[in-house]
TrEMBL record:
Organism: Methanobrevibacter curvatus
EC annotation from Swiss-Prot or TrEMBL: 2.3.3.13
Protein name: 2-isopropylmalate synthase
Top-level enzyme category: transferase
Species lineage: Archaea, Methanobacteriati, Methanobacteriota, Methanomada group, Methanobacteria
Keyword Transferase recorded: yes
């Protein structure tokens, strides 16, 4: 058995759409994390890793940003990857032309649709905004692009206006509409309501771009899928503007193991992609980050280690191999005899029960004095308790 999750998950009769598309925006929204700047080579390497994972679409960048950005997006678009390559464009001809110059398969064209965005950023009214958006969609469709239209700040946009925008976008032949929860401010129930409402008015595919300002990006994405959306935007390690976006690894594994929806991802590549993104973005992944954090398969507590040695699924919902991770047993203040014995066995040392108890005591004492129990410290403890040995 590779995983063991709650059997009660199945009792909730949930219905997900048949075909769910994950479009990953690590290389665009992820790169918008303050201080991050990826080189074209780094972007290409990350795109190749995402492709190995069998990602459906890669949002490779925002071509109008710079000539180096165009170079990067173009290189990714021409790499022959299986994933569809898309890029971001404002509702401006110049932005769409920049995307076209990069040979992408499609674009996400966006416009802030809420009154606060229209008034303070766009400085135009709703009618003008609607016309500008349709012109952009028309222009991109005329150039045979896959076109997604994103209503930025959709979750704070007047519902009637949002319905009109998406309906009109549908009439203009858009391939997908995006609900962008730009400042991560909707609840899972709010998202469920919004998607259900919009589905009464548009037949086009609906994707969700959720931010994590309240830690709800994953829940909001799943809630939206359950209401009938069939696309989700993600980033590796959940990076992105402010609190970041829905994390790719979390949604893949939650859908697969918690909800029983296997999207065919090669999950054993997950840790690799995560490490690569951490390395190039220099954003340290928190140790407790779900799925890919350093502590996800590390155990120190004696009671846990004792059980994990017998059967890892006692204290792990799934095995590290599933995501290309590794289990590690750590010695410290919370260690018990079983953990220390396992370490001694690994080092090839035989001790009697009395010595084992003393070693456990010394491990705790040393850690409480501030020392990490690495191999060197452990050897010194064993030496101190049993006399000299040859490691
Ligand atoms: C929610 C999101 O994540 S949206 C993506 C955000 N990403 C980025 O901004 C990263 C890259 N950005 C950049 O490199 C630059 O901001 C550029 C190249 C896009 C634009 O640079 P500049 O021309 O110097 O504009 P500046 O950054 O000062 O302001 C943004 C402009 O875009 C306009 N704008 C914003 N959204 C849209 C839109 N959907 N359609 C048309 N114009 C838009 C703003 O109104 C503003 O226009 P103004 O210059 O006439 O005032
Ligand atoms: O809808 C999208 O895919 C992009 C929108 C976006 O980046 C945002 O609103 O935060």
């Amino acid at each position: 058995m590779q995983y063991f999750v709650s059997p009660y998950n199945k009792e909730a009769k949930l219905k997900f759409p048949k075909n769910i598309t994950i479009y990953d925006t690590t290389l665009r929204d992820g790169e918008q994390t303050p201080d991050v700047c990826l080189s074209p080579d780094e972007k290409l390497e990350i795109a190749i890793e995402l492709d190995k994972l069998k990602i459906h679409q890669i949002e490779a960048g925002f071509p109008i940003v710079s000539s180096q950005e165009r170079q990067a997006v173009k290189a990714i678009a021409n790499e022959g990857l299986n994933a569809k390559i898309i890029s971001l464009a404002r509702t401006k001809k110049s932005d769409i032309d920049a995307a076209l110059s990069c040979d992408v398969d499609g674009i996400i064209t966006f416009m802030g649709a809420s009154d606060i965005h229209l008034e303070h950023k766009m400085k135009i009214g709703r009618e003008k905004a609607l016309n500008v958006c349709m012109k952009a969609i028309e222009y991109a469709k005329d150039h045979d692009l896959f076109v997604a239209f994103s209503a930025e700040d959709a979750t704070r946009t007047d519902l009637d206006f949002l319905k009109r925008l998406y309906k009109k976008a549908e009439d203009y032949g858009v391939d997908r509409v995006h609900i962008a929860d730009t400042v991560g401010c909707i609840s899972p129930n709010g998202m469920n309501f919004l998607v259900a409402e919009l589905k009464k008015h548009v037949k086009t595919d609906i994707a969700l771009h959720c931010h994590n300002d309240f830690g709800l990006a994953l829940a909001n994405s799943i809630s939206g899928l359950l209401a009938g959306a069939n696309g989700v935007s993600t980033t590796v390690n959940g990076i992105g503007e402010r609190a970041g976006n829905t994390s790719l690894e979390e949604i893949i594994m939650a859908l697969k193991l918690i909800y029983g929806v296997d999207l065919g991802f090669k999950t054993k590549h997950i840790q690799n992609v995560s490490n690569l993104v951490e390395k190039y973005t220099q954003i340290k992944t928190p140790p407790n980050k779900s799925i890919v954090g350093r502590n996800i398969f590390r155990h120190e507590s004696g009671i846990h280690v004792d059980a994990v040695i017998e059967e890892p699924l006692t204290y792990e919902p799934f095995l590290p191999e599933m995501v290309g991770g590794q289990r590690k047993l750590v010695l410290g203040k919370h260690s018990g005899c079983r953990a220390v014995k396992a370490k001694l066995d690994q080092c090839g040392f035989e001790v009697n029960d009395n010595e084992l108890c003393k070693i456990v005591e010394e491990v705790k004492k040393n850690r409480e004095k501030g020392k990490y129990i690495n191999d060197k410290v452990f050897s010194e403890i064993v030496k101190h308790v049993t006399g000299p040995f040859d490691p």
